[in-house]
Each structure stands twice: as structure tokens, then as C-alpha cells.
Amino acid sequence: EVQLRQVIEEPAHRVGLELEAGLTDRLVDELRDYYANVSFVSYMMRLLWEQRQGRFLTQSAYSRLGGVSGALMALADTMIETMMPEDRTEARRLLVRLAGPGQSPQPVLLTQLAPKERSRSFDRVCTYLSDRLIVFRSPGREANEQVAMDDDPDVVAVLAHPILLQWPLLRNWLQQDRPYLMELAQLQEWVDLWKKDGIILTGTRLGYAYQVIKRHQLDATPEMIDLVEKSQLKFHLHRRRVQSLLLLLLLLVVLAIIVARSGYRAEYRAQQEARQARDQARVLISRENGRTPEV
Which candidate in 75, 83, 119, 184 could, as Cys together with 87 as Cys, close a disulfide (CB 3.0–4.6 Å)? Predict the structure, then answer.
């Protein structure tokens, strides 16, 4: 907090400006949840300077701006409006992913945000939004230390301030994209189970996961794709084993039928031979007795 006060007051004092009593406290209170972003603090101070009264930065100007939240949302609107259509689409995708389906934004690994085939639009948007709407951080560094996107494979991206969840444009995007966010959240839950307990997908879950990845190829993480591919492989191997067992069972049934029919024929032949032997014996006995045998 002391460092934040210095970032707010010292540049103003160096150019002969004064902050009205209580203004620094209001700024510190609202900027505390912002990820110590010097560039946005500078932007905020410039807005106050544009509405200064003499050499004073005033609380009334701060209120007209809507405070940090109002200034941040106005900045966000301006940044989105000035983007090319392709970049605006990519910015929407990134911001919606970082906002997530819950009530508080969670850090997301940059490797999970980047498309499978990293595009120029993705890099352009990350650079443009960085330090204003998105902050890149590394788990091994201080929470308020900014990092470059390619510094570390563990770099995460996070919304620069929770107040962005109240930004009307982002709220509208979230409402429209909530089903897609829930689908990705479900896949991530299954990925976590797979990593923890080795549980793969089968049946309807596998079909559902395959369709989600097909619909959202840009946002499917390598782990999601890996889970589905391994589940499909195991499913095909299982199906081949079942087919082999069914074929073996069929062969055994056919063999049993053949054996049974052979046995029946042998028994029938034996009965016929026994009957013939009896008939012959009767004939001989009749001849011995001098009478015609009964048939």
C-alpha cells in the first residue's frame, strides 16, 4: 500500500500538482485489488490531470470519471472499439475464458489460452490488452510483478481487476457464452479426475467430450485432447477384444452344433445297424423253424 501511494503521489508532486485531501485514500482503496499495474495508474492520473482545477487533482473529477471502475470500463470499451474485427473476436474469446463461469476470475495458464496453432491475432491481442485488461504473472515471482508472455511455460493470465466482471460488454459476452464455458469446465473436471485417479472417458461422456472439442477447437487444451484420444484408443481396443471374444464364442457354438449333429448321425446309424441285425437274426431263426419271419 505504501508503494502504491508513492506511485500515485510522487509523479504528481514532481510536476507541481497536489491531490485533494482524501483522494489518495480513494485511489488506493480501489486500486488495491488491481494487480499493481503502473501503466493503468498513470492512465488514471492522466484522466484526473485533464480535469484538474488549477494545480489540484480533485475528488469531484474522480467521481465524474466513475472512480477506478468507471475509468477502467471506459478504457476497456475504447480498446475493444478500436480493434480490427479479427482481433475483437480473439479478445472476446480471451476475456470470456479469463472471466470463467464462476463469480471470481481465476488465473489460466497461457498455454491453455493459446490456440493449438498460435496465431498473430492471439499475440497481437495479448500484447494490446496486457497491463490494462489482462495481467501476465508467473507463480515463481511476486504477485505484482509483470512478466513477458514467453518468459516461462508456467505463465498465467488473469483479468487485471475483478471489477471487470461488472463491465457491461463482458457481462453480455458471458451471458451469451455461458453454455460454452460450462462445457469447457466439465471437460476440465474430467481431465482433473484422469490426472488424479486415471479415470478415462467411456460411453456418453466420451461422445460428449469429443463433440465439445470439435465445437471449440481453439479452446480445447492439449490435456483435454489427450484425454479424449487416449479414451478413444482404449475404447477401440476394448471393442476389438469384445469382437474377438464374440467371434470365438460363435466358432465354439458352430463347433458344438457340428459335434452334436455328428453324434446324432452316429447314433442314428448305430440304431439302424442294430435294427438290421435284429431283422437278420429273425430271418435266420425263422428259417431254422421252417416258417416265414414276421416283419
Answer: 83
57 backbone dihedrals φ, ψ, rounded to 5°: -95, 125
Separation between Cα atoms, residue 16 and residue 8, nearest integer Å = 13
Strand 56-57 and strand 18-19: pairing? parallel
* The pLDDT value given to residue 142: 53
Q: With pLDDT > 90 as the criterion, what percentage of the chain qualifies?
A: 18
C-alpha cell at 33: 485489488
- Whole-prediction pTM value? 0.66
Q: Report the interhelical angle of 168-197 vs 67-81 (nearest 10°).
A: 90
Count CA atoms closer than 13 A to 258's CA, side-chain side.
Answer: 6
On the question of pLDDT at 144 being above 60, the answer is no
Categorise residue 22: left if φ over 0, alpha if ψ from -120 to 50, beta otherwise.
left
The pLDDT tens digits of the residues spanning 169-185 come to 999 998 888 888 888 88
Please give the backbone phi and psi of residue 215, each rounded to the nearest 5 degrees, phi first: -75, -35
User: Regarding beta strands 108-109 and 134-137, do their DSSP bridges make them parallel or antiparallel, or are they unpaired?
Assistant: unpaired
Rounded to 5°, angle at Cα 111 from 185 and 167:
60
The DSSP bridge partners found for residue 209 are none
In angstroms, the CA 223 to CA 195 distance is 9
d(CA 257, CA 287) in angstroms, rounded, equals 45
DSSP 62-106: HHHTTHHHHHHHHHHHHHHHTS-HHHHHHHHHHHHHHH-SSSS--
How many residues would you count in the chain? 295
H or E element in which residue 156 lies: strand 156-159
Q: Which amino acid is at 16?
A: G
Nearest alpha carbon to residue 208 among 196, 216, 199: 216
In which band, very low, low, confident or very high, does the pLDDT at 22 lie, cut at 50, 70 and 90?
A: very high
How many H-runs (helices) and E-runs (strands) does the chain carry? 11, 5
